[in-house]
Write a structure and sequence with these properties.
Shape: flat
Number of domains: 1
Strand order of the largest sheet: 1-3-2
Distance between the termini: 28 Å
Order of helices and strands: EHEE
Helix content: 10-25%
Number of helices: 1
Strand content: 25-35%
Number of strands: 3
Largest sheet: 3 strands, antiparallel
């Protein structure tokens, strides 16, 4: 997922655990999450890899 870096219209209304929560959920499923600046240095990119087969 990519965005343009402008952020949500009203960030004060956001709830949840953000990237740390997404990373934790990916890990529980045996996957991994990478997040950081977009490829051109603008915006932000989130990339998640999940296994095709169940873990465990």
């Amino acid at each position: 997922m990519d965005d343009d870096g402008t952020g949500p219209p009203d960030a004060s209304r956001l709830t949840g655990r953000g990237l740390s929560g997404m990373r934790e959920r990916a890990s529980v499923l045996g996957g991994e999450l990478e997040a950081g600046p977009g490829p051109d240095g603008r915006g932000f990119r989130v990339h998640v890899r999940l296994p095709l087969e169940p873990v465990g």
